[in-house]
Amino acid sequence: METFEDTFFEQLSYTCSEAKQAYGQYIGMTQARLQLLTSLSRQSEISHAALQQHLQLDGATVTRLVKQFEAEGIVSRRLDPQDNRYTLVALTPSGQQIVKGLRETHATFQHRLLEGISQEELEVTLRTLQQVRANMRDIQMEEKA
After folding, report:
1. What is the dihedral of CA 48, 22, 126, 118, to 10 degrees?
2. Would you tell me which of 64, 86, 134, 144 could form a disulfide with 80, CB atoms 3.0–4.6 Å apart?
3. Residue 29 burial by CB count (10 A; 0-12/13-18/19+): exposed, middle or buried?
4. What confidence tier does 48 reach under pLDDT thresholds 50, 70, 90?
5. Alpha-carbon distance 27 to 65, whole Å?
6. What percent of the residues of the chain are helix, what percent strand, and what percent coil, each to the nearest 5?
7. How far is CA 101 from CA 30, 104, 107, 131, in A?
8. The whole model's pTM is what?
9. How far is the C-alpha of 83 from the C-alpha of 86, rounded, in Å?
10. By the 8 A CB rule, do 88 and 47 touch?
11. What is the residue extent of each domain of the chain?
């Protein structure tokens, strides 16, 4: 017999998965490409290694994505002047414009996604999700100890 908690976690899992897929379709971009652009928008310049670690993607995937974006004129690459073993990546002005457009598109998507949900419901949901995440961190810390 399925409990309320089972239903909650099933719905939470489906919601997260479906929201990512729907957003990717809405903007016409894979999650990995979106995450890379978002990461670059928060940094002025970052190494491939740092991107790989931050995005938790393998090096070949990061390199492939960066090369694709470079070919599209969205990012630029250069050797790190302090250590030429590393390649630094940054958004070009064109890339910055794309990220700006993505932010605007995200705001529209987010508004549509939350239609019909009251501010009070959102606040309760946010507190619930924050508590679930805090509990997860506690569990992870216990397992490490």
Report:
1. 150
2. 86
3. middle
4. confident
5. 17
6. 70, 10, 20
7. 16, 5, 10, 32
8. 0.73
9. 6
10. yes
11. 4-113
For residue 62, the tally of other CB atoms under 10 A from its CB is 22
Structure-token match 């897929």, residue found? 21
Fold annotation for 4-113: Arc Repressor Mutant, subunit A (1.10.10)
Nearest to 62 by CA among 36, 80, 88: 36
DSSP state of 57: -
CA atoms within 13 A on the CB side of 7: 4
Per-residue confidence band for 145, with pLDDT thresholds at 50, 70 and 90: confident
Would you say residue 119 has pLDDT above 80?
Answer: yes
According to DSSP, the β-strands at 46-47 and 75-79 are: unpaired
Two tokens at 11?
Answer: 């719905």
Cβ burial of 36 (10 Å; 0-12, 13-18, 19+) is buried
**How many helices (DSSP H) and strands (DSSP E) are in the chain?**
6, 3
Asked if 78 and 88 count as a contact pair (C-beta separation under 8 A), the reply is yes
pLDDT in tens, 99-113: 999 999 999 999 999
Q: Both tokens of residue 50?
A: 């740092």
